[in-house]
Each structure stands twice: as structure tokens, then as C-alpha cells.
Amino acid sequence: MGYHGWQGNPPGTEDEARRRIVKAAMACVDRVGLAKTSMSVVAAEAGVTRQTVYRYFPRLADILSAVALAGVEDFAARMARHLASFGSPAEVAVESVVFGVLEVPREPYLGLLLQAGESDFFTVAVTSAESFALGARILRDVPVDWAGAGIATDDELQGLAEILMRLFLSFLQHPSTPALTDDQLRALVRRWIGPALQ
């Protein structure tokens, strides 16, 4: 299974090997930063050869994608706590976009792909069915009257999550010129998304 090394403690499964490499990559990013994190550095941290790392992750971008995904649940929990303080579906929708635009670049792991210039990988991750389902789950758990806003089914809630995530992605990857303040971004999103949820 390519378990050369592993600091004398080989993983029992392929999934465990991948998890250990991802954990090693996170440790490297924390310790030396993204710019100095390479396949060689990750391999040394994991206690394996570079060839072993390449076996599981053909490119550094693949490792960074896995690291970013490892940070998704924590980010989702923080977003859910933030959204719980808003009282209407329109406010929740607007704030979900604003929160994403403001917080993803600050996330230690979730924003890695953008920092690394791998926006295509980030786009694929954000626009996946799994991400839309996660977005719908976050929205569903916020205690507002979605049915009163015309969103009665899980499919409709997932559709709303998809629109909001695509909007957040657009603002994140292609910021306005000149840059919008937080309040200007909030007002713009509220003007065009709010009426659909009244």
C-alpha cells in the first residue's frame, strides 16, 4: 500500500493514509505558511517519501483541496451561528452571502485554494452538489419561516443555497471595482435578493 516510513506507524487503510497526509499538510501550513508548503515539506511532516504523497495526491493543489474540505464543517458551524441571529429569510439569505465573501479569505484552510491561485479547484468545490446540500442544511437549520417566504420543499431550499453560493463565489473571485464596503455589499445583495424572499 505504499506505507514506506510513516514514522514507524503505518496506516491501516488508504483513507487513513490520506487523512494523515492532509493532517501533515495542515501542520505545514500552520508552521511555515502556504508559500513554503510543498510536496517535499508535506512528505517530511508525514514521515514518508514524496512518491508516497504523490500516490495519494498527484498535485499540491489536490492536497490543498483536501485541506480546504477539512475546514468546511467548522466554517459551516460558524456561519450557522452567525445566521441564527437574523429573523427573516431575506436577512438570512443576504447575510449568508456577505458572511461567505468576508470570511472565506480569512479562513486558515478554506481560503487556501484562492491564496494558491487555484480558483478553478475552489470553484469546483463550491459548486458541487455536496456544497449545495451543505448550504441547504445550514439554511434549513436557521429558525426562520422559509415556507412563508415561498420555499416549501428541500429542493427549493437547495436551489436557494445554490443561487446564494454562486453569488458569493462571484463576489469573492471577481470583486467590484472600486471595492465595496461591507455595508455596500450587504445593501446590493439585499436590494436584489431580498424582494424574492418577502
Automatic annotation (TrEMBL):
Domain HTH tetR-type: 15-75
Top-level taxon in the UniProt lineage: Bacteria
Residue ranges flagged as DNA-binding region: 38-57
Annotated keywords: DNA-binding
Keyword Metal-binding: no
InterPro entries: Homeodomain-like_sf, HTH-type_TetR-like_transc_reg, HTH_TetR
Pfam family, any one: TetR_N
Protein name: TetR/AcrR family transcriptional regulator
Taxon lineage: Bacteria, Bacillati, Actinomycetota, Actinomycetes, Pseudonocardiales
